[in-house]
Design a protein that fits this description.
With 339 residues, the chain is α+β, with helices and mostly antiparallel strands. It has three domains: 66 residues, Uridine Diphospho-n-acetylenolpyruvylglucosamine Reductase, domain 2 (2-Layer Sandwich), CATH 3.30.43; 130 residues, Uridine Diphospho-n-acetylenolpyruvylglucosamine Reductase, domain 3 (2-Layer Sandwich), CATH 3.30.465; 105 residues, UDP-N-acetylenolpyruvoylglucosamine reductase, C-terminal domain (Uridine Diphospho-n-acetylenolpyruvylglucosamine Reductase, domain 1, Alpha-Beta Complex). The strands form six sheets. The protein has a five-stranded antiparallel β-sheet with strand order 6-7-12-10-11, with no helix packed on it. A four-stranded mixed β-sheet has the order 1-2-5-3. The protein is globular and about 60 Å long. The two termini are 25 Å apart. The structure holds flavin-adenine dinucleotide.
């Protein structure tokens, strides 16, 4: 374990932005992490924890210590008649954990197949896709508080999970390092295929019984068709969250745009599709400099030929936000972490 100086982060972010960190270290165990955090050289430096870098936009060099979390591995922590508890190291790849659960018929995260990144980042924004969210299977997590280096466990109620949100994105942002996550999965698999694209994909197969493997495969197929692969073109998935607006604003918009679809939430707010809104503003496939709105999925901003810098991506994102505000009176919120 060696702390490197002026280290390039190009390989460590899926947007493929070429910035560097003043200090950089990769840790493979909790004891290595504690050792690094106790080093005098970095005590006064700001700290950024990095997993797979698939939900980050770097807009400049990072003037502090980047800690790449590579604490890997997973194990069965406990079993009951119906449930199985799996504890996974925060640096394990999320999709490896999904694959392990799917292969063993442990249900609960199969709809979250192929989401890039690490297990430790999954609770940060309560990852979700195709009608499932991390919080549905989450049991607890362990980590270290950066200000006093004490270990702390958080159970589900303490995480304040919301739509792409948690306490770790708010009060505890950059103040807590997640080292492991424990999920509670079902030994008896119940398919959750209410999400329309997933239902359609599975219906086409005409299956008499839907296995966990089929659900995972269907999600994989849809995602491969719809989303740009970060190994081919830099991106960080959805750039913005789907906005939730008041019912009064929804009705006002519906009068001008009768095709808009809204989903009323428990709070009474109406969730609308950010992709649809961005498309209505004419952004689908449009580029500014080396940054572009993806041609098939307007919620994704891509780095053309991996030549853009972070400011170019951010400039395009801000132009989109301005036009959405002017056309719909909606303020889009970024899903990606801007650093
Ligand atoms: C093609 C593509 C598709 C995607 N699809 C989805 C999707 O369907 N649903 C979805 O929810 N997301 C999606 N994402 C976003 C992303 O994959 C997830 O947010 C993922 O959880 C990020 O993991 P990461 O390890 O790459 O996190 P990073 O980008 O490394 O970090 C994200 C944030 O978490 C913090 N962090 C990371 N690890 C830790 C830790 N151990 N302790 C404390 N803080 C930490 C970082 O400081 C940062 O603020 C997609 C991204 C891409 C590129």
């Amino acid at each position: 374990m060696k702390i490197k100086e002026n280290y390039s982060l190009l390989k460590f972010n899926s947007f493929r932005i070429n910035v560097s960190a003043k200090f950089f270290v990769e840790v493979f165990s909790v004891s290595e992490l504690v050792e690094v955090l106790s080093e005098n050289i970095i005590k006064k430096e700001p700290i950024l924890i990095l997993g797979g870098g698939s939900n980050i936009l770097f807009t400049k060099d990072y003037g502090g210590l980047v800690i790449k979390n590579s604490i890997k591995g997973f194990e069965v922590a406990r079993k009951t008649d119906n449930d199985i508890f799996i504890e996974a190291g925060a640096g394990s790849l999320w999709d490896d954990l999904v694959g392990y659960c799917v292969n063993n018929n442990y249900g609960g995260i199969e709809n979250l197949t192929l989401i890039p990144g690490t297990v430790g980042a999954a609770p940060i924004q309560n990852i979700g896709a195709y009608g499932q969210e991390l919080k549905d299977s989450f049991y607890s997590l362990n980590g270290i508080l950066l200000d006093n280096l004490t270990l702390k466990t958080f159970f589900k109620d303490e995480c304040y999970f919301g739509y792409r949100d948690s306490i770790f994105k708010n009060e505890l942002k950059n103040k807590f390092v997640i080292t492991s996550v424990t999920l509670r999965l079902n030994k008896n698999f119940y398919p959750n295929i209410d999400y329309s694209a997933l239902k359609e994909e599975i219906k086409e197969k005409n299956l008499s019984k839907i296995s966990i493997g089929e659900v995972s495969k269907a999600v994989r197929n849809i995602r491969k068709r719809k989303l740009p692969d970060p190994s081919e073109i830099g991106n960080a998935g959805s750039f913005f969250k789907n906005p939730e607006i008041s019912s009064a604003l929804f009705i006002e918009i519906q009068n001008k745009f009768p095709n808009i679809k809204g989903y009323t939430q428990k709070s009474g707010m109406v969730k609308v599709s950010a992709a649809w809104i961005i498309e209505q503003c004419g952004w689908k496939g449009k580029s500014i400099g080396n940054a572009s709105v993806h041609i098939n999925q307007p919620l994704v901003i891509v780095n053309i030929n991996n030549r853009a810098n972070g400011s170019e991506i951010l400039y395009l994102a801000n132009q989109i936000k301005d036009s959405v505000k002017n056309t719909f009176n909606i303020i889009l919120e970024e899903e990606v972490n801007i650093v």
